[in-house]
Records
---
Amino acid sequence: MAEKTVSKYLLNLEKNFASDQPVLQKAAKVFHELDQIEYDLGLLSNDETTACKDSWWPVVSLIGGNSSAKSGFINNYIGPEYMLSGLQPSSHKFTVLLHNNQSTPTILPGTALDVDHRYPFYQISRKIEQQQEGEGDRINSYLELKTLNSERLKGKLFIDAPNINAVSPNSVASLLTRHVIECSDLVLIFTDTFDSANPLVDELVETIIRHQDSNKFVYIINEPAAALNPALNNEIISSWQRKLSGLGLNTGQFIALSTVESTANPQNQAGFAAIDQRMINVAYDRSYRVLHSLEKNIREIDHVVIPEVTKSIALWKDRVHFSTLLILGFIVTFAIFAEIQMGILDLLIDPIIGPAVLLVLIAIIVPLHILISKLQAKFIIHQLNARQKELHLMENLGKLFEKNLTFSRMLLPITEPAGWNKKTKARLSQLTEKTKELVQLLNDNFGTYNDRSFTDYSDSLDLTH
């Protein structure tokens, strides 16, 4: 089997995480091993990597309603330069905020996010196009990238969603809102989001309910500074907990803030300190998300990719056999008529002419069977390509299917895809075990036993087997 070159993306990841994130550096190596397996199966090209399915940035998203709560928070937390730079948040776009050392802020179009696999909106235009035909080309009307020099943005991506009550309900807005929540490590939801009835709010609630086990949600309650004292805070938070519980939202952290006040305001310090702590933990949340993505990618080969191709191979063979049987039926029908008219049965059972006729028949049927197989394969590959887009897979299902267009596989009743064997399954099983070890290694950063860090015990973990 040919050796797949390590993608530049993975090499950069290994370099970036070499000093401070050894778990992610090792994860990048496991991703390459997975890439090698998919390359051997024909699912990936030499320059592709499954690691780009999810962003490796820690991602924080902000979702608010119609009030100024969210913009006031951004102004105070990220810095007033965001609001004073002429880069006010767009009322209808999902805005990605990125740190930049340059003193002058910049605005980049949505295509900058759509074509760069490092960002969480990579190839989102394809999903938008599937959701609503013609809208994929209008990516710039839905997304934008803004860079500014803010210390709070270092090492993170912030996604500022448009105020949900100001957006016209449509399928694209729903898709992008779901995508933002799914790819985020921390979601700050301002409670003014739930102040009015809106189809998008209902869909948001359903999305949050589906992801409640992820512990990624923080609800920001905007209150006047005068109301922020320990006695009133508990009452305000309890009130909102009861209200959201009635909507089915039973988990998440609640923080009361006066978003128009600065982080230095004494009444706000406890709330902003809690947010700072969550921001610190975002990097760890990202690490677990990446490892979960790795495990999911491994699992999808066995549970999604292979079954789709196996099903297509079975359909392909059924169609080919049916077509071949039709031709054989035509030949048998012709032979029957010939027997009635001319009496050729004696020729067919002749010890010399009979075998010769059989050889001629095989010489005709086998090439016809091969030709029919190749013609039917074109239709199957077209269907697989459509199915790949429908499932949002980067794996090339058609290429894996094409590996089955060999002489022996077209003649023999083999339905398992080429290359899918015990050895490949064992390799995937080993990668699953390595991923579990990486999760354990990450867990060991937070535990002690007999006053010793678990990391001391996990140094012996061998991830090279």
Note: The chain is about 55% helix and 10% strand.
---
Amino acid sequence: MAERERLRRRLDDGLAALDLDLSGAVRDRLIAYVELLARWNAAYNLTAVRDPGEMVARHLLDSLAIAPHVSGATLADLGSGAGLPGIPLALIAAERQVTLVDSNGKKARFLREAVRALKLANVRVIEGRVQDVPGQFDCVTARAFATLADMLNWAGGLLADGGTWLAMKGKVDEAEIAAVPAGFRVERIVALQVPATVGERHLIVVRKA
């Protein structure tokens, strides 16, 4: 119980810094997700972050820092890995349909277990390549997944007209920005302030040209 209280305090402090007002029930489910990730991580090595307290900062808060930029009724999280940022974003917006995509079998198994354990009725998991995902989405997220050019060349067709592609990056690489393929434009680059973390974090917002 003391460990859960430690995690909850860290989450509460981070949400306050991000100016996100979430219900107690949602906060509890976010902590439950971290606890589940920590248990699975011991056996499956899903993330290099081992300490659950660090998971709160580097995974939950990092994911939730982009929440103000997410819009639309449908979201695809490409290269979702352990469900980041897709699961935290799904937990805070139950009305949004979220698709988690990853080609790695063990990560997809964890994602399916997280959907079951957290009762995420608004989430589905696709185990496969991003190139093979059907349909289009109002918002597409990708966290340190590949270069912008590769992501958009592989899966740019998943972005619906008027939709928003949100690429989460550390430092901004100007060469990477310049290499965005025809048909897309970088609308803005947002410097993210993620509580309790060090290093640069940026969100690159892309739309169809």
Note: The first strand starts at residue 74 and ends at 78.
---
Amino acid sequence: MTRKRVLLCVTGMTPQVVTETLFALKEKSELPDQIIVITTARGKNRAVRDLLDAKEGRFWEFCNAFNLPGISFDEFSIEVITNNKGELLEDIRSPQDNSDAADFIMNRVRELCQNDDIILHVSLAGGRKSMGFLVGYALSIFGREEDKLSHVLVSEEFEGNRDFFFPSPNKRRIISPTGKELDTSNAFVGLAEIPFIRLRTGLTSDVL
């Protein structure tokens, strides 16, 4: 039985890290079968708008541009962090918010790593720095030998540009914050795979 590849991303107000990571994985012939995003309520609104809009969603544009049907990703794949009362977290602004985010991320990574039918690829490129650390830390605890951790690398003039989502196969014009005209087909996007210590084998079954 072929195991399903799952890409797990944490995002904030820059959901383009999802399509950037997808492009980098495509270049390595390691595209996922499914995408899961962990974010805040504000982050989900932005991700749904920018990635999944029926007319202008950049995820659909990515799939069409490279003829890549079959990647499972929709609004239900975007999971909002909840606090210990089950309330959706609008943003991470307090120590308690950060603690709630840590619990949510840790539990979700543990659940995914309990599933022997999937191989997990975790991207820590998006969201607040604390979210990136937490998801990497959780993978260090629960990750298996085949699971991977990465950060996406984007050429400087395109990095952080709200109109850039992936290097287009054809010319596409966007404008930089300084007013410079850029062609997205010239952008570089690569993947930095991050080695991490796997602690799983040293943990007791009740912790796992």
Note: The longest helix spans residues 95-113.
